[in-house]
Design goal:
heterodimer; A: alpha+beta; Four Helix Bundle (Hemerythrin (Met), subunit A); 7-stranded antiparallel sheet; two-stranded antiparallel sheet; B: mainly alpha; Cytochrome C Oxidase, Chain A; 19 helices; 63% helix; globular
Chain lengths: 410, 612
Amino acid sequence: MEIPYTVKPRPDTGLYNAKLGIWLFLASEVMLFGALFSSYVLLRVGAEPGTWSMGLMDLFVGAGNTMVLIASSMFVVLAWAELKQGNLAGYKKWKWATIACAVLFLCVKWGYEWPSKFKHYDVWLNNATVLHEKFDEGYHEVASHGEHADDEHEHGDAAHGGDVEKHVEKIYTTRFFKERSEPSHAAFDDAWRNGTLALSGHINAYEEAQIDVRITDWKADAGVSEADAEKALAKQGAEDAAGLRLNGGLLLSKTGYDIAKRAEYALGQAGFTVALSVAGYERVEAHPWMWRTKRVNEDIGGKPRVSSIVFGLDHSHHQEITLDVGDIKRLSAYEPKHSTFFGIYYTITGLHAAHVFGGILIMLYNMLPIGLGLWHRDREQFTNRIETFGLFWHFVDLVWIFLFPILYIL
Amino acid sequence: MSATSEAAKTAEAIEEQHDEHHEHHEQSFWRTYIFSTDHKVIGMQYGFCGLAFLFFGFCLIATMRWSMAYEGQAVPFVGPLLEALLGNNVARGGVMSAELYNVFGAMHGTIMVFMGIVPVAFAAFGNYVVPLQIGAVDMAFPRVNMASFWAFFLGCIIMTVSFFIPGGAAQAGWTSYSPLASVIPTDGQTYWLIGMIMLITSSLLGAVNFIATIINLRAPGMTWLRLPFFVWAQFITAFLLLLAFPPLEAAGIMQLMDRVLETSFFLPTGLVVGGQDVDVSGGGSPLLWQHLFWFLAHPEVYVLVLPGMGIVAEIIANNTRKPIWGYKYLVGSVVVLGFLAFIVWAHHMYMTGMGTVISAFFQTTTLIISIPSIIILTCLFISLWGGSIRFNTPMLFALAFLPMFGIGGLTGLPLGFNFSDVALHDSYYVIAHFHYVVAPGTIFAIFAGVYYWFPKMTGRIMNEFWGRVHFWGSLIFMNLIFMPMFAQGMAGMSRRMSDGGATYSLANPDNADITVGALGDTIMGLNVSISAAAWAMLVVQLPFIVNLFWSVKHGEKVKSDNPWQATTLEWETPTPPPHGNFTKEIKVYRDPYEYSVPGAKEDFTPQAQPAK
């Protein structure tokens, strides 16, 4: 049995099967990304003023990645052209160049762009007064470090004039509206008065709970023998396991969250009743990733896991303010959950990156002996295969060319 | 394959068969019957899975009908089974809980549409028959075809497994409207979404393959207007699947993001669930889900119906012994239908308050799309005129399809107008309407197709007597199930109520002072008769199931490769067709339905018969 037109085109349609197939596949891909682009439009048009937080993208990095993909699209054609001339070595050269571009693209996306967003936060505060106070506090710091005012000259008038609100409006409108206009001014005014603005920046440090772990009870009928229960205690670092089991008492003092939780779970399995309480808070200098309101507010014996965070409003470490977690309404890194903009950003770029990744795998297959075997059996079919891959690759490139403006520029 | 290509090109028919025989010997049992790339085996795999799921989906609704007729009473026979399998928190003492009713309702729709009818009507018949009817040796991409089936199979496993996870399967209806579907705390919806993504992938691979096959692998002489109508119907269906499914895939991915990564694509600002603010950013749009869902799900209606129309056209031409009346109108209509199917979706959303301008637009397109549908049905009706009709089982089912689909289609008109839809929306009227389209419509066409092509697949004919029992039983009970639902719907009974509307009925003492909107005893009483008809329907399917398996080994043997004396190419193959299908060079000389040509020796002239 031989299926016709696997290599030579059918005369009346002018297409070999795979070329027809890849165009049909791309048609469905157009509908897939088309639906996501349409969703982007609908969500953006429906967004409340001042909530479409897209002014945060690094245009330079995005533009660089665009150039990298465009170059790869050119290389993929050159690889095919070399095959058409029967030059396998030339094919390999350009194909490696394509793969290098694709890998570079993903490194920038997954190694730099995404992770840097996971360390960047927005904080919404409970009421307008707290927000205004914190803004004042933050920008007051700038004024007192006058010598630094010039390396952030856009903050200059806030430093000197002290008109925090005007300064904040400037930052805010560039982020959400790209320009200062009547609607942007009105939206800012509204958000400023109602306190719905978010502070954005990094968590430079925080005060995390030091937890005491106490044994309050042990149930003999939980199905764990005394010896096993004591072994479980000893495993958690108890010195007098038997005494602790009988009388209860302090097991771990001022320990970290993870250790305390692990002990609570393991001892719970062994029939113990364990109480966690906060003995104090310790300041930790770190830039945590992907924290959420739920995490900082987690209840440990009636107290929050984190009592306050030191929030840097910019990179300079001078506009630092300390936020009590009680004042925080919502805390979110720039992760998908942050807002519908970031939701659609990660969905579309993630799906696109998955296509790039799949493309890399196919290209590698076509470079390895297993894929090159076809070249030695049937040169024309292999060349066709590279051509159909090229069509797919151009499509992936084209998707990015639409993505770049809607996510970075417009 | 290409190693043997040079040899095969020049080989005579017998040599080719020999060559292929040689290839075959190297294939293990697994490669021949399980991980096969042969379009016929894949077609039958789809067929068996799909029929099994149709039966399973029917069992789900048969169980639900008990809850509607006798709410709060233990389900006989299956009650203990439900309690044992699904746990006593959803089926305590064999009584179906409202949660379990929701699970079964959502999964009944999902299974019937995506795992039952599409696999059988499109994938099974399409895979088996389309390459044969166009004179191709196989599909254009056999391995993609196999991948398509296994993606489908994986999706089915995920859906089936989801019944047994804590909390059970999806509960938000087959339409999975957000925010409900996004905020239900059990994991069923997440499984549903992952399962759907697998099923969509399967459809995508299948659709690419069908279209490429029909465009590129037609035998010499098989021009576009010599294609049997069934092939045309499958061709348009494949385009609908190719282009309408990806938006649902996008929507599925977004709802998955909502559920797993806590985004709020479909969750509006200020959403409160169970009295608590939901900790999400908000800013999403529930309407967006409905748009994306119905952008698929309306074309999906035509995916369900067009293959059925194709099957019915083949059988009517064959059993009236005359050409289909208006073949070109049929083709034109089905193409127009394919285009229009993409711009009618929001007629499912009149009640969302999307605005009168949009409603007016979609009302207009919806009524325009009824024109090609009516042309198709009219052509099929006129084809009967003056025919010498053979009333065999496939023909009976095909004949019943016409008025049943007609009822389904015409009762859709009041739903297409937004002023009348406002009253009928989400009532049992809607249920009756779309079930008339797909149950006595498409499912009858599926039965017709099974009885019609069974001899080609096995070399034996299914038992005619039990076929008739199956037909008359199905026809009667089908109508006893769905006809009363029109009355219930017009009386105001809402769908998706586990007590069959008892909460709202006049018989409910709590409603003693309500006069408007309450349901009378007659309407409520219909719940019992409909349920009884549904269980009787289940019983009359047994002859079909037994007949199907029994006839494989014991059915009457066919006397020739063309037992129905048909004209199309699938009957030119040996029976059952070997790998590679044809043992002779196939060339097409004439139109698909040359029955009773004046002056011809017999009353049928096959497409492959050369002109004198």
